[in-house]
Specification:
This protein has two domains: 2-76 and 376-424, Urease, subunit C, domain 1 (Roll); 79-367, TIM Barrel. The two termini are 33 Å apart. By secondary structure, the chain is of the alpha/beta class. It has helices at residues 54-60, 92-99, 104-109, 118-123, 126-142, 158-174, 197-214, 232-244, 261-268, 281-290, 298-303, 312-317, 338-349, 353-360, 362-367, 395-398, 421-424, and strands at 2-4, 6-15, 35-44, 47-53, 61-63, 66-68, 73-76, 78-80, 145-151, 178-186, 220-225, 248-253, 272-275, 293-296, 323-324, 385-388, 405-410, 413-417. Bound molecules: N-(iminomethyl)-L-glutamic acid and fe (iii) ion (FE). N-(iminomethyl)-L-glutamic acid is lined by residues 84, 113-114, 117, 224, 252, 255, 300, 327, 329-333.
């Protein structure tokens, strides 16, 4: 018997997300979660060493630390590949303005929106940014997210963008969450350059990108490509320069209007194009040809009160590696729960529960180019595992509004145990 640091046994369904085929899940593959009934996971330190039926695993391995999943669902931690968690003030006033009939664009153009988050971030110390975001990130971890991406983009000056990226770097070291940084200096034009956009673009390209590169603070460059923010030509220019400097590209594309962002993501060879609420058929086909990963953010469409959700079904049918994320931010979508995003993806975009789970785990891992380490429960991968106190995986989209996580295991270590959850859910099917 081999002695290990941790065994998880008796999962009613162990969602391994294993597949023989390399690459993200596409088309029909998204429906296969690699389920093992009465499953168990054998873990040594941070790494998964074996996966199988509980009796098989217990015949081969022993441990002083055995978690009895006791008929619950065991699955990979959620991967949330699009968030903006570094900010100072929340903007709930904008939700009320939207309810009264103002659009996101109108609010942005009348002094609200992204620009209204800039001053406070510029004034905040690095420590303040870290303290504020740490609480948010812990809450995400407690809801089952074990790896996330985090963007800068509320500083819009070289110093304050660097400060945001440093905050992300510190949080990545300090917290149990793995955090992948993305530089988003092209999130808006700051107030002082709103009538001299070319000047800001010069600062971005000549100063910010080289400095981010020099300090090794992010391998990704993102942009808010929308006709009233960074239009197609400006986006093509900035992303082209970023690529020349060796950045890999992520994009906010076609969020509100069919700007041609999806087509540009294909032309430029972006890793991901995100939002895509207004993407055309041509855009979908171009992304397929270029292998761009679409990251869909239904929380934002919901929070903005819009009805044009991204066309997830058409994208799955076209063979795109559909991925989901929260877009957690202070303005358009203050959602920190991948569980809720899965509900929206299923109810509003008609994704099947299994497809939405693949889009929130293994495909998220591919979108962050980390699928060799995370996103599934397989031998040699990192032991980032969530135990859900629910009777079946379909319960995730079905249940709304509270946290079904029972336990979060990050790199083989229990980092959250939800004591409240235990008595709350009636296990109807047993
Ligand atoms: O992805 N669209 C641009 N950026 C964010 C919103 C940020 C904000 O409103 O503060 C988004 O929705
Ligand atoms: Fe965003």
């Amino acid at each position: 018997m081999t002695k290990l640091s941790l065994i998880i046994k008796n999962a009613k369904q162990l969602l391994t997300l294993q597949s023989d085929k390399k690459g993200p899940r596409i088309g029909e593959e998204m429906q296969h979660l690699g389920i093992i009934e009465h499953g168990a996971v054998a873990i040594d330190k941070a790494i998964i060493v074996d996966v199988g039926k509980t009796d098989e695993i217990l015949n081969k391995y022993t441990s002083e630390n055995i978690i009895d999943a006791n008929g619950k669902i065991v699955m990979p931690g959620f991967v949330d590949p699009h968030t903006h968690p570094i900010f100072v003030q929340t903007r709930e006033n904008e939700l009320e303005m939207r309810i009264k009939g103002k659009s996101y664009k109108e609010i942005s153009q009348s002094g609200g929106g992204i620009r209204s988050s800039i001053n406070a971030v510029r004034k905040a110390s690095l420590e303040e940014l870290v303290t504020l975001a740490e609480k948010r990130i812990n809450k995400m971890l407690q809801q089952g997210t074990t790896t996330m991406e985090a963007k800068s983009g509320y500083g819009l000056s070289t110093d304050s963008e660097i400060k945001m990226l440093r905050a992300i770097e510190i949080l990545n070291e300090k917290s149990d969450m793995d955090i992948v940084p993305t530089f988003l200096g092209a999130h808006e034009f700051p107030e002082e350059y709103k009538d001299n956009k070319d000047k800001y673009i010069r600062i971005l390209v000549d100063e910010m990108l080289p400095e981010v590169k020099r300090q090794g603070l992010s391998k990704y460059c993102d942009i808010f490509c929308e006709s009233y923010v960074y239009n197609i030509d400006q986006s093509r220019y900035i992303l082209g320069k970023a690529k020349e400097m060796g950045f890999r590209i992520r994009m906010h594309a076609d969020e509100l209007e069919p700007t041609g962002g999806a087509e540009l993501s294909a032309e430029i060879g972006a890793i991901t194009a995100d939002h895509l609420g207004a993407t055309s058929d041509k855009g979908i086909q171009a992304m397929k040809r270029a292998g761009v990963v679409p990251i869909l953010l239904p929380g934002t469409t919901f929070s903005l009160g819009l009805d044009h959700y991204a066309r997830a079904r058409d994208m799955i049918n076209a063979g795109l590696a559909v991925t989901l994320a929260t877009d957690y931010n202070p303005g358009s979508c203050n959602c920190d729960s991948m569980q809720f995003i899965i509900s929206l993806a299923c109810i509003q975009m008609r994704m099947l529960p299994a497809e939405a789970i693949a889009a929130s785990t293994i495909n998220g891992a591919y979108s962050l180019e980390l699928a060799d380490k995370i996103g599934s429960i397989e031998k040699t991968k990192q032991a980032d595992i969530v135990i859900m106190n629910i009777p079946s995986y379909q319960y995730i989209p079905y249940h709304l509004g509270s946290n079904c996580v029972d336990m979060v295991i990050k790199k083989g270590k229990t980092v959250f145990r939800n004591d409240n959850n235990l008595e709350l859910i009636t296990r109807v099917q047993e």
